[in-house]
Amino acid sequence: xxxxxxxxxxxxxxxxxxxxxxxxxxxxxxxxxxxxxxxxxxxxxxxxxxxxxxxxxxxxxxxxxxxxxxxxxxxxxxxxxxxxxxxxxxxxxxxxxxxxxxxxxxxxxxxxxxxxxxxxxxxxxxxxxxxxxxxxxxxxxxxxxxxxxxxxxxxxxxxxxxxxxxxxxxxxxxxxxxxxxxxxxxxxxxxxxxxxxxxxxxxxxxxxxxxxxxxxxxxxxxxxxxxxxxxxxxxxxxxxxxxxxxxxxxxxxxxxxxxxxxxxxxxxxxxxxxxxxxxxxxxxxxxxxxxxxxxxxxxxxxxxxxxxxxxxxxxxxxxxxxxxxxxxxxxxxxxx
Length: 336
Known about the structure:
This is Nuclear RNA export factor 1. It is built from 12 helices and 11 strands. By secondary structure, it is α/β, with parallel strands linked by helices. It folds into 3 domains: about 1-120, Alpha-Beta Plaits (2-Layer Sandwich), CATH 3.30.70; about 125-265, Leucine-rich repeat, LRR (right-handed beta-alpha superhelix) (Alpha-Beta Horseshoe); about 275-330, Helicase, Ruva Protein, domain 3, CATH 1.10.8. Strand 8 (about 210-215), helix 7 and strand 9 form a beta-alpha-beta unit.
C-alpha cells in the first residue's frame, strides 16, 4: 500500500538559515544554509514523463511542493548535469523524505537530494522583484544600502534569491548602479558570499562608494577576492566573521592605505602618514572631500562649508536634505 497523501494546502515556508555543518540524520544530506534543496531524478526509462515521475513521488511522500521544475540537470555541478528531471523544495522535511526513499520504492528511478541553491533564470518578472527588494532597502538621505540577509527579504517569501549566486549578484549591482550611482555606504553582511568577481569594474559604476561591509560571509582568500575593490576610495571596510588568516589586516592596510576603520576598529596613522595627518583637518581637505562625496564643484562645496562654520557632518546632512527636496541647482554640479 502506498503512504496516504496529506492535503496539499498552502503552508508558509520557513526561511531560517541553519548551521550548514549540521545534518538531517540519515546519510550525508546537510541542512541547506538557504533552506532550499535540489532534487535530481535519474531514469533509465526513456518513456518517463514529468507527470509520471511526480505521480510516483507523491504517492511515496506525505507532502511535496515542487518549485522551479525543468527537464534535465543543472550545469553548476558535474554530478547534477545528467539528471532526467530537476526540481527544488523549500522544506527540510520534504527534502528528508525524498532523500530517504529506497530503491525498492523507486523502482527504475533514482532520486538524489543536495543542499545546492536553485539556479535562477533572470526573467523580466524576477528582475523586477529583485529591483523592488533592493529599492526597499535604500536610504537616500545617507546614500546607504543595506543588503544584509538578502535571501530572507519579504520579497522572497515563496521564491529564491541569494547574492551568493553570481547571476543574482550581477543583477543587483546593475540595479544599484542605475538607481543609486552616488552610493556611499554598502552593507553585504551574512549573504554567504564567496565570489566577488561580479563587482569587477565597480569603481566606474559606484565611484563614490567609501564604506563597505562584508562581515560574516564565506570569504577565505582576502586579497584575491578584494582586488575588485582596489580602485575604490574606501575609508571603511568590515571583513569580520570571515575565514581569513590573522595577517589579513596588515595586507588590507597595505592595499588600502587610506582606510580609517577596519573591522569596526579605528586605525591609527602609520609613522609615515602622521606628517600629513594634520592636512586631513584643513579646509582644503574638507572642500575636496565634500566634492568627492556629493558631486558638487569646489565653489559650491566651499560655500556650503562656510555657511555651516566648516562643520563637515552638518554640511553633509544639509546637502542631502536639500538634494532630496530638489533645492540644489544643476550649476552646483557643473565643472567650475
